[in-house]
Amino acid sequence: MNDQTEPGNDSSDLSAPSDLSALSADERILVQARAQALGRRNFLVAAGLTTVGVVWAASSGTGQVARAATPRAVTDPCTSPTPTPTGGTGAGTFVVPLDSVPHTRTWMAWPDSKAIYSGQLAGLQANIALIANTIARYEPVFILANSASAAAARKACTASGVTVISTIPVDDCWMRDSGPVFRANGAGGLDTVGLNFNGWGNHQTHANDALVASRVAAYLGLPFTAAGLVSEGGAIEADGVGTLMATKSSIIDPKRNPGMTQAQLEAAMCAAYGASKVIWFTGISGQDITNDHVDATSRFLGTGTGLVQTPNPADPADIWSNDENQQYGVLSTATTALGGAISVTKLQAPDYNKIRATSVDFVDSYANYYVCNGAVISAQFGDKTADANAKAVLTRLFPGRTIEQLNIDNLGNQGGGIHCVTQPQPVP
Fold it and tell me: Which segments carry the region annotation Disordered (predicted)?
């Protein structure tokens, strides 16, 4: 998630299957569209493309079509909370849980592209290593690295709990967006969903990152399903019991999901996440590569509880502060899929005049924290008052967990935060 002009797209590894005769006309159109399309304030991003019900083979790691389920007609959004299809081993509905459930490990990726990051690469790598080494004090970390940079990743990620994997190539470090979304069924079953990463609407080269989700699933030997829409993990927040939230700007996007209606996208989101309701925020288009991912502003804490980062009164009003206020207003008056009200905690942003960073595109998101086993990994920006308040709020919201506050300014300068570069693998 770089604020600069992105390199050209590369979709050479993402060809459509040669034999589409077994698919319906609608399926053929969408599968072919996937092959053609695949080729961040300037924040995070990631996406992908596929048909509803088309399953991509995890075992091969190549993105070939394994089989196609008959697409259901989309009428009302989220008509069923059951993902289609699931390949898990246990009985029950597969759902994407909150980050705060127990983890087996955290997945990350090592950036090494000078074409994307130029002279800022070393600083970004240092922040990735800091995050990985910090999380590794609480749970194992698996970090993907290209073979040419695996030794550098191992040298930087010195914690004993970090394992560098050099057999799954990557283009960038935004694992929340490109990695698999893990689902559990509460009966010992675990599977994965891919959100069809397409370089945030073809804004960045992504030939390797488009395949990361299926390749991680294959590495783990887990079933893999391609979702029925193009999106990113940072674009969809789940409470684990039926409710999702997202910005319209990052989902109802012609560069991600051309021709799909809001109702169709809701149905695909709910099927992928095991949910039955979507809370929509308007969002912001054209100002960052992600089109305003929700995880920079609004998060679920549990059933009927949420958090929204709100503007610092010392900063002048702008489109971002208006967006924060709008998200707070919507979430605090919304209800969950179970019908209950949502209690929303405000987390005040830092004062831009008191933080270390000077870029107007710097992402100053406290809300982009990551919850791991026994800790919350969060950012601090140099505004001592706001940093202390953020730590106090997170301490109250996550009792029993250590609040780690890290200087990740290099990551923020690239348009992302800690949540953007981490992907949790829950305990089944």
Answer: 68-92
